Predict the structure.
Amino acid sequence: MMNRKRDNFFSRFILTIITVITVSLSCSFVHFSHAASSDSSSVHTNNWAVLVCTSRFWFNYRHMANTLSLYRTVKRLGIPDERIILMLADDMACNARNKYPAQVFNNENHRLNLYGDNVEVDYRGYEVTVENFLRVLTGRHENAVPRSKRLLSDEGSHILLYMTGHGGDEFLKFQDADELQSHDLADAVKQMKEKRRFKELLIMVDTCQAATLFSQLHSPGVLAIGSSMKGENSYSHHLDSDVGVSVVDRFTFYTLAFFERLNMYDNASLSSLFSSYNPNLLLSTAYYRTDLYQQQMEKVPVTNFFGSVMETIHTGSAYRGVSGKDSNRAKFEVSSDQSYDRDAKSITTSSDPEKQVDHPGIKAVKSGTCPHADLWNMIVEKVQRIKDVDSIVNYGFVGLLTLVAVSTWHSS
Amino acid sequence: MVSTAEIDGQKPKHRPIIRIGIFIIAHSFLVSVVCCTAGVLALLLLPVLAKKTYVSENALMPGSATPMLSDQDVSGATRFMNELTSPKLKSWNMGIELPRLIALHMSNLGGEVNYHKFQTQPNNFHPLYFFTSPDAEANLVNKTCQSYATNTIGIIRAPRGDGKEAIVLVTPYNPVNLTQSEVLSLGIAYSVFSLLTQVSWLAKDIIWLAADSQYGQYNSVAAWLRDYHTPSFGGHGKLHADNCRGASGMHGSKLDMFVETEVSDTFRRAGTMAAAFVIKVANTGEEGEQDSLKIYAEASNGQMPNLDLINVVSYLAVHGQGLRVKVEKLVSLLDSKWLNFIGEMLESVGKIARSLNPQWKFGIPVQEYVEGSATLVSSLYNQAIGVPTGSHGAFRDYQVDAITLEISPKLSSSNKARQTEFLFRGGRLIEGVVRSVNNLLEKFHQSFFLYLLTSSNKFISVGVYMIAFLLLVAPLPVVAASLFSNATSTNPNSQKHTSSSSEPFQSWRWLYPTKTIFLVHLWGAIVSLLPYFIYQIPECQPTSRLLIWASLSIFILAVLRSFFGSSTHLQEWVLLKSVTVSSLFIGLCLMSVINFATAEIGALILVPMCLMIKPWKIAGKAHSAFNLLLLTVGFPGAAFFVVKGAFGVQNGSGLVEFWYWVESLWAWNSATYIYICMVHLPCWVLCICILLHCC
């Protein structure tokens, strides 16, 4: 009896010590674990663009011009080259038939050479295949693939995926050889979603029957624009009789016309882009699929996808702005703390699960700032109090040792 | 009777397809009448069924680029033409100086230039080399220096191209007797060449072949192509030229000094040829408001260039340069009353159909129908003969798509401004075509190779025109089967006469007529080879050669007949006809694969003859007279004269003309000759045999 009583006492003592330790620690990473698990609240961290021209041969000059025009536009609006994956299936600029060697134009006035300096083509020629395209989206590369050829997006990324080429009902031709089906695209997007490779994704396709390519998409956060409905063709805009080919497609031409009026700081919304398409000028009906996208088109600026304009974050003190990398590092720190005491973790996670889900959202709404800022403040406080914690930890160790000693003595 | 009872007993077990077959064979007469009529009707309907042509290959993009030919190019061409026709040149030896002058201008423009000396080849008949390319016999010919001619070749290398492909422009001219139209065609080529040396968009090399046509337009191009495709190592080709250098005095003139540095005798090559265009200017001006363009496409054995090539040219000519595009047609047919009558019938049928349902649109106006038929007949005739209609035919032998563009200026074309305008037109047309073909990525393959033209923008594809032929030959196996089954069913009656033949071998009785037919076909093969030996007889007139040929053939036939004549049976004619008909069926089907047009015309003549034929003694008088008529028409020579007479293409007299015609068939390795000797003639002889059969 005595033994058992003593045992009880010891176990209670130890338990209290442990709870004291863990409660003090836990508060610090409660919010982080939440931030990692929930998508809806992840912050827009960066912008990526994947621009694909899928068709080769000289007479498809316009597809390369389309893609290069979009490349120029997103670069102008602020997406840096390292976050643009440019895939060009053929090299029109150096084609022997090109009257203007090493130049590509998207207008017969020849004012703008799209193939000037600083064009970084990530995938060119026969590298542009369905396989490589899907690898880029899903991030399943071979080890040797350099970082510049990878889509290194994260859960807070906004991605623009622009594709142009020859397509048909639920497929897009690649290289005149193989084709990307709507299933493949939907599957890749789903994988991206599960791997948290994007927050929002805008798929823009300029091809015949483009709308059919989106029919299989199910992943939330995806927005799709196609140049034509099922059964419709997408047409080229005009022929450059000097170069001897059509130089731009209608849908892309009017998209570019819309963006030419904008600069990086304009607040034009996605809905204004959508409404800018005139079926009489396109000779086809532009199609938008918005049911997977939660936010209102009127309130989303086009630069969310076509530029790299982050939401401005108001922080209490100067030079404490947070970036994706910093928050990652902070998380790493804490998790290393976490590994100190497994028991502690298991207790805390079970202690207040409801709070984790609800709180940050409310907090963010109340304070009107980014939840990251709050978290950061919390961490800072914890770090300041870390000396006390040290002593607590030490006490905990002493307690553990005594517990071990007592239990061995008791068992013997 | 027992056997028939057994067959009756087995009948219910037959599968439906066999029963249908038996039914058709039982009604073979009706089937053959219906099929033959339908076949002829389908042939007459072809102009109505013709479809509009369209450019099938995306890469071509004809007319998407504006022509760049400038005043400078044209004025250069005018100066070049003036030099060609200058009286100073006339005094010299034209045959030597003209190639030199052209070479000088080519190299001044910036092209790589070389001469190609070649020797003309006599049209000898070498049966052993019949289907091989002509170069096999080239080595046999002793080279003499008298008959050398000189092609001048200028090559523009594509500035950024890979040098693997080339486009060929050919201008045939006769340096001994240069005509104004040849000068014009050289001028057009010069202006285009001058432009193309400056442009930056070439992906294929350009070869300008100024072909010396004093020994025939075809020969010069064929000789050049032969040397182009058979690379000679160790300067073997050069040796021949060197041997003749002194004799021809090629390098003796003063002009030589200018050119010697740039022009070499080494044979220059570019890549594989994507397409070739023979540029000609018609001698006589056409009446009418516009300049017009005539396209010749038929190559040897009825081969046609890809339809896309014709489409591109006619599209650019009509929409780019406002030329009237024509295809060769049989002018004499335009006024024929029966054709007009059929046209009117079809038009009215079309109108009635449209009144019933506005969506049925198959009627075409009479004028269109008649013109379509005239073009179709000419197209069929040219393909059937198997002789190319121009020097573009030489390219087809190397699987290069080529056509001849014959541009004819309107009548009032003598003044200078008019000539400049004409040069502009022609030059821009050629430039557009070259630029379009330059865009090409692969060989021409998208559009049709097997087609008949009914106008420059309407064609009949193989799927449509085969129907007419298939309907014509369909009765042949049916009739053969029905005759055979008749012969075997009447077997018991004939048993009395041929008591010696035993029962199990009855079904093999068809082997006897087969022996006859084999011998007759063997005779046909011998006849086809006879001309080779006739050519060994020196100094012989065409008429006597023809007569020797005919008499030798008849003699050999008589000798062979002594082999098979003895074994004829009284009832054999049915089996003989049956086997004849089936051998004809095989022959026609084989020929339709090689040259459709020949098979079609052959079927038109032979099928009624073979189906109608009956021994003189069995058939009625009217029937026999009709048979005789068919037999006279069916004789190859007679058919030739009938066709000539009907279409009014008379040029020459009787036998001599026939001999030259046959000679041309040999010269062009035409499969039609083989067909006539190995299928048509034996079949005709067998029909005579059946007609004269004593029952």
Notes: DSSP finds 13 helices and twelve strands in chain A.
